[in-house]
Fold:
Amino acid sequence: MADRILRRPEVELLTGLSRSTLYAMIAEGSFPEPLRLGRRAVGWRESVVEEWIGGRAPAGRSSIVAR
Structure:
């Protein structure tokens, strides 16, 4: 099956990141760079975004160490 190309609004929804945070993380190298789709259009491979999400530390109580 072919990898879908996700545009920025969909990446924001999937990751919960705002546009400014997304681009700040790209600049610091902590989020994958987008593919250039045209002169003014970019997108991300769905598999790359899903892999990035899967590699994040779990959120919530499960990540808190009990003392």
